[in-house]
Each structure stands twice: as C-alpha cells, then as structure tokens.
Amino acid sequence: MQRLFTIFMPSQTAARSSLPPGSPPPDLRPLFALFSSGLYADMERSANALLTRHVNDGEVWKALGVAQQMQGKPAVRALRRATELLPFDVEVLTNLGGVLSGLGQLEDAVACYRHALKVQPDHAPALCNLGLALTALGQVDEAVAALKRALELKPDFVFAHHNLGNAFVAIKEPLLAITAYQRALALKPDFGLAHHKLGDVLQAVGQFDKAVASYRVAMTKGPASAELAFKLGTLLAEKGQMHEAVQLYRKAIHIQPALADAHGNLGNALKALGHYEDALNSYQEAIRLQPDRTQFHNNLAAALRELGHIDEAVMSQRRALDLDPLDFVARSNLLFAQTYLPNQPDLQTLRETRKFGVLAQQRARPFQSWNVTENPLKRLRIGLVSADLRCHPVGYFIQGVLAALAVDAATKIEVFVYANQHASESDLLTKSIQTCCEIWRDVEALCDEQLAWQIHDDAVDILIDLSGHTARN
Q: What SS3 state is found at 180?
C-alpha cells in the first residue's frame, strides 16, 4: 500500500529542554532555508555539522531526520534520538511513525501515533497516519474512526480523504471509497495517486470508461508507474484499442522489465493485431520470467498454432497441463490443437475428449429439476451458445440457417441466443442474426453457473453449442 505521511520541519520557536542550562541554542535558520529550497542533501550535511557541537539538541536531530526522510533515506536513528530528547513533541513522534510504517514496522508505527495522540488528542496528522497504518494491519473499523476524526478537525486534509478511500476499499465499500477519492481530488486536482486509486475502484464497479479517464489523468500527474501503465493498457485492450494497449504494455516493461504479466498481455495484444512472431517473443519472455504460469503456456500455444507450428503448440498445451491438470482452458485448447495434427490417432483424441468430459462432469453440479414441458403443441425452444455471431465462419453459417427457420418454422420454433462475444465485436452480421431470433442475451459478463441458470430459467428444450473448443467456449 502506498503510504502518505505528513512530514514536519523543526519549529523555530521550540523549547529546548534537552540543552544544558546556559547553553546557547544553535541557529536553525540555515536549515529552514535549505528545506524551503528543496536542498535536502545539503540540509542533512548542515544538520550533521551542527550535531558535532550540539549533540543533545533534539531539534537538530529532528531536522536531520526530516532531511533524510525527504531523500527517502531511513531516518529511524535520527528520529528515535529526537524522541528521546523531545518525548512530548508530537511532530517528531508522527515523523518517526511514518518512517517505521514505510519500513513495514506497522505495530511500532501505531505505537508512535498513539503516543503522539496521548500528548495531543486533536493532532489531525497523527490521526491520519494512524488510520493508514491500521488499515494496513487490517484493523479497518478503527482506521475509519481515526480518519473521520482527522477530517472533523481538518475538513480540507487531502491525505485523510485519500486514506479514508483506501480504508473503504479494504472493507469493500466502493461507493464510499469513490466519494472519498473524489473529495481528495476536489482539494488537489493534480493528486496523481488519488486518480490512480479512483480508477481502480471505478474499474471494480464496472465503470470502465470512467476508470480509463482516471488512469489517463494519473499518467500525467505523477511519476511513471509500470503498474498504472499496465492497468490502463489492460482496460484499453478489453475495449479493443490494441495499438495504444501495445504502447502502454511496452511502457510498463521499460519501467519494470521483469513484469511478467506485461509481457504476457503484450503478447495478447500483438496476437490480436496479427503480429504473431512478435507475440511469440513476448510469451516466451513471460515464460522465462515465470515458467510455472499455465496462462503463459496456453497463450504461447495459441500463437504457435496460428503460425502453423502445431506440434510445438501441442507441447506447450501439455506443459500447461503438467502444471495444472485441472486447467480446463489448457485441456480445451489441447483438444482444439490436436484437430490440426495430420497423423493424430483417433483413439488418442477420443481418450483426451473423454478425459475432458469426466473432469467437467466432476466439477459441474447438475440441475435436479427442469422447466421444460412435454406439450407437443408448444413452440420448441432452441438455444444457441456462441462467441462468434459476427463476421466469422460461425456467423456466416448460422445466419442463413436462422433466416430460413424464421420463415419456414416461425410457428414451431423459438430461437434463444446466448452471445458470449465482446460488445465491441458486434457488426452488421450480428444485427442481421439478431433479427432472426426471438430472444438475444449478451452473456459475456456471466460465469458458467450464471449462464446455466439463465438457460434453465428460459426453459430451453434443446441447447446447441456452436463454439466447441474454440475461443471463449
């Protein structure tokens, strides 16, 4: 989880109870000037120089810790020393908590924040940081309470709104999370991470266009992120925008070359564009990075099959099944690839097909009752399941059949279609097929069980599978 902390500079008017009586305090004004100028390395050097003469000055240790924090360095030693010398300084305690939280020492961080809140119960930054650490620990109800209290004290606290959004995500309250992120962005429109998190939640609730818009803004408002480029690329690929998806996957790989999923998805996008050789290279790199991912072997096999390397495709499918014998996608793809082998023994194909059937039957839960009736006078309900009711061989074939049935058997047959293709793939042939059907259901978003219940509820008499072992069966 991204950690957003408030980092405090030393106070120019702080009391120095840790100094020996009569000791003149060091001049911290040069440190403030360096901090204001963003010269954190120079600030660190100056603080270290001051400590040679003022080793027991808590404010100098605090300044050193801040300088190290701003450079992304571990500042635990400096801030722990500052808390020893300034035990009631809530800013030091909050800064130390932030460092510990960033190091994954969440329990210790929470202890620092609680100590700070004992000193000053209305300290909004400590409440905000406490909420973030508690969310990471899974203590989300208490985190929400801390963050809401921080916002009561400081309604325009951008980080608190953002962190509250994270907490709502953790307790699966996406609509509340969206509101929290939007409030953070209303206060800070260039908050790149909030745009990213908002995009995540919008995607989770199915608002894909809005998610794309949020990710696009996030890409322009913060440092380059492989995760963000990958997510945006994946959404665009699902919308059929493959050229831009390819660019984004390549950007993700440039930032994080070992991101196996980016290589795998790049292969998918290149394959969709017909660039099979390039797709092959991407899949092979994904497998090199994560050799035990069945998905990558499946996709490699598909590219090999498109290139006519059937024996190699079958080997890749068998490798996927070695990794996961219950991978139905791999087993289905193996059966499909075997139909291209010129010398494949019929008996072996039959054995593979029966094995698929046995495994599928073991996983399925059969219905115990049926809605169909045995009235010979009723119109027979015919169901068709396909992902290819478009400009595709299946679409070309079935359009003529359905058109003829609509004319010659309209009083005897009702046609129910369960279309499993992407909405973006619909075309003129799709519309032509739709005119020949009584009921058309887009079922891409349904899982297998949901689709089975839909067909059951429709009281279909005969169901015909037009996909076999082809894509999205």
A: helix
User: Strand order of the sheet with strand 462-465?
Assistant: 439-442, 413-419, 380-386, 462-465
CA dist list (Å): 175 to 160, 190, 210, 418, 445: 17, 22, 14, 31, 21
Closest to 269 measured CA to CA, from 308, 222, 230, 305? 230
Q: What is the DSSP string of 422-471?
A: -GGG--HHHHHHHTT-SEEEE-TTS-HHHHHHHHHHTT-SEEEES-TTST
Q: What is the pTM of this model?
A: 0.79
Q: Please say whether the beta carbons of 390 and 430 come within 8 A.
A: yes
Structure tokens at 60: 């100098």
If you ran DSSP here, which 8-state letter would residue 383 be given?
E
In the three-class reduction of DSSP (H, G, I as helix; E, B as strand; rest coil), residue 84 is classed as helix
With a cut of 50, say whether residue 13 has pLDDT above it: no
Q: Which of 7-11, 185-189, 191-195 has the lowest mean pLDDT?
A: 7-11
b/e per residue, 388-408, with b = 16+ CB within 10 A?
bbbebebbeebbeebeebeee
Cα–Cα distance, 79 to 81 (Å, whole number): 5
- The pairing of beta strand 439-442 with beta strand 462-465: unpaired
Q: How many CB atoms lie within 10 A of CB 246?
A: 23
Nearest by Cα to 150 from 183, 191, 101: 183
- Check if the beta carbon of residue 177 is closer than 8 Å to that of residue 169: yes
| Separation of alpha carbons 384 and 461, rounded Å | 11
Which DSSP state fits 382?
Answer: E
